[in-house]
Fold Protein nucleotidyltransferase YdiU.
Amino acid sequence: MSLHIPFDNSYARLPSRFYTRQSPVPVREPELVAFNDGLAKELGMRTGSEVERALVFSGNRVPDGAEPLAQVYAGHQFGGFSPQLGDGRANLLGEAVVGDQRYDIQLKGSGPTPYSRMGDGRAWLGPVLREYVVSEAMHAMGIPTSRALAATLTGEQVYRETGALPGAILTRVAASHIRVGTFQYFAARRDLPALEALFAYVVERHYPGIESPEALLDAVIDRQAKLIAQWMSVGFIHGVMNTDNTTLSGETIDYGPCAFLDIYHPDTVFSSIDTHGRYAYSNQPNVIVWNMAQLATSLVPLMPDQDKAVEVFTRSVHAMPDLIQAAWLRRFGRKIGLAQLSKTDEALVTELLQIMADGRADFTNTFRALSDGRARDQFLDPNIFDAWETGWRTRIEQEEDPISVMRSANPAYIPRNHRIEQMIQAAVAGDFAPFERLNTVLSKPFEGQEGATDLTYPPEPSEVVQQTFCGT
Ligand code: AMP
Ligand code: MG
């Protein structure tokens, strides 16, 4: 039975100024290197032969029912407004419909589009596999995210700072790719009919029942507050929280120079282009508020009374830091075994983080070791842990089952930066075993797994990844 995806393409029915119809640009020699059978099943897809999958997920064959297009959007990049961005190297094939849910099926690295600017429209294998592994790991940790359906090699080379690299394409699946920047694009043009159409579309697709722009803003703020708290709770640093990389659905998208904390320090930055630390680990809660303020600004024209709109939206945006803090505290409370929070618990969390920073403790391993009594070993000077531990032990006596709470909040396995780098190097040399192993182990991040202890180790000094790159 040949490959089949149950397409119904609602975005392609929006006015033509929302996108450019465009097919993926065929590649020389498509080769399927990864395929996510579980996700394909969830999408109600018939997978066909490997040859067909290679053709479809490299862009060489447009599958039946697809209506390929490149979406247009705008966005604040590192705080500066770009009035026109768009899918410069991506192609939305269409939406797979499963029950009442729609999923964008998008190729990333599929060739130039009218929005490519100076770019070549392509991706190389490294960032493709990085996004594959990290997005699937995030999903397995219960964090809303786009997902990875397939990765193909193109048989072509792409040229980046470091020279010629193997070209690749990622097929990603998302609740949608509508961004804060999508609203900004039409707001910047004072295109009220388009804003109205986009508002109606987002409500129908993501927030059924919502009737007003202020209710939409509050709903997006709520989802984004929870999302950022989840990122923080696993030590995830997105790296490029531009408004064009912030979704209306509340999912994580656009994995570029993202990375996970090894040693805990709040100021950690990995991205080579983030020279001022705008998107540092601890700044993510501030940035998301700023991004929601940009969303609010672009919703103003939809309100009948503009002054009133500014007043109401300002109140919503100003309420967001407290929402994030509450979501953050719930997550971190669970990380130290507290299902029910009391007033003094916040200090217990912040004190632990402070001594972790002072003691150069590994973020993931310290939290994970709390439940088996070995956290002390994670500190350069274990004495600083002892005082904290006494208070904490007293506190968790009041909890019903702190061990299970901690075990389900503290992953044993995360996609560590040095493992990702090693996996990419192996894949470039033709060995995909480390890639498959990472996917397998990271699919059960909260379960100890036989023979996988090495994946919990922090990097050796020679393995430490100092910087990560967009790969664009
Ligand atoms: P990002 O912030 O990495 O998600 O991307 C910012 C913008 O640059 C988006 O509009 C992308 O489509 C575009 N872009 C990134 N890489 C490329 C590329 N290799 N070719 C064309 N456009 C690109
Ligand atoms: Mg982007």
